[in-house]
Amino acid sequence: MAPSPAESSDTVLALVSCISPLRYCSDFRPYFTIHDSEFKEYTTRTQAPEVRSHVPAQHWVSVYGPCSVRAAILSESRAELSDRTSYSSQTLQHWPHIIRIGDMKQAGEMAKQMKVKKLKNLKTLDSKPGVYSAYKPFLNRDDEIIKQLQKGVQQKRPSAAQNAILRRYFLELTQSFIIPLERYVASLMPLQKSISPWKSPPQLRPFIQEEFMKSLEKAGPQLTSRLKGDWIGLYRQFLKCPNFDGWFRNRRKEMTQKLEALHLEALCDEDLQLRIQKHTEVEIVDLVLKLKDKLTQAEREQLPVRPGTVAKLQSHIESVILSLPEDLQGILHKPPTPDPRPPTSDPRPCPMGMEDPPTEDTQQTACSHRDRAQ
């Protein structure tokens, strides 16, 4: 709750950026007023969704204190909602998290006005500025960063410097949290020696939650963070939230593209001229078409291949085409029809599997050539 849309927006955007380098993947709104069409829906409910121990209610507001570890990691709500109106706080007293922002006429007044308050009974909520939350954190409070910020206030440290200290703290905290996840996800990647140019790229191993939890015993965040508490419970809750889903989807896409890139590089190291000597004209045409599909995919998805890989594959394709009769060369040199499909990171059928039967289009192309030859 804020006195103006500008102050509300600044606060909400600051909150969702606290988990950087993780991306906030839920819905949030910079500000929300009594004139919005959904105002009644959000304010007339008699109670928020059930709030379990340690768990903030899903689909509702989650407001976190600036010195709490959960601000940097566990932003699970579906909406970050703020209001510039002065209606009674009792309207939202059933919400598990509320932040009340007062007038900040001077930048230095923030430290005096903002107070983190833990209330077991939100019905006693008053209109004073502060953070009100029924959330019970998984980890212990970090008193060192609080003392550091309080000392900065006493010494009249510039707000920009205070902000830099807090952002660096959140960055390091999130990195300590995400490193075990990065390490485990990297182990899902198949070995490079398992990649064959004549078979489909191998699939990533699935993410198994209990397997990951077991890895935390020896390689958990305790190696890089001084904070104590229920790290296992925090990870379990994080794995259920949209932020993990968004992060894992992005990492999975990156790793799948890496597999496709390694497969493309393996193709370029093969002697295609030697390969086609044992195959029919129809199979060679099918090979060319699949190689072209592979090139199109590399350009469309911007696969992270070594410099010169695409040019090398283009040279291979050209040499294979030149080994065919002239009229087939003319057909295969025609520019391909643009692919209307959106980019995808899903594993594709093997683009080079010579053991695969030729496609119908390939057969028609080769048959038309034979008909003309006759």
UniProtKB/TrEMBL annotation:
Residue stretches making up the UDENN domain: 1-258
PROSITE patterns per record: DENN
InterPro entries, sorted: DENND6, Tripartite_DENN
Compositional bias (Pro residues): 335-350
Chain residue ranges for the region called Disordered: 329-374
Single GO term (MF): guanyl-nucleotide exchange factor activity
GO cellular component: recycling endosome
Family: Belongs to the DENND6 family.
Protein name: UDENN domain-containing protein
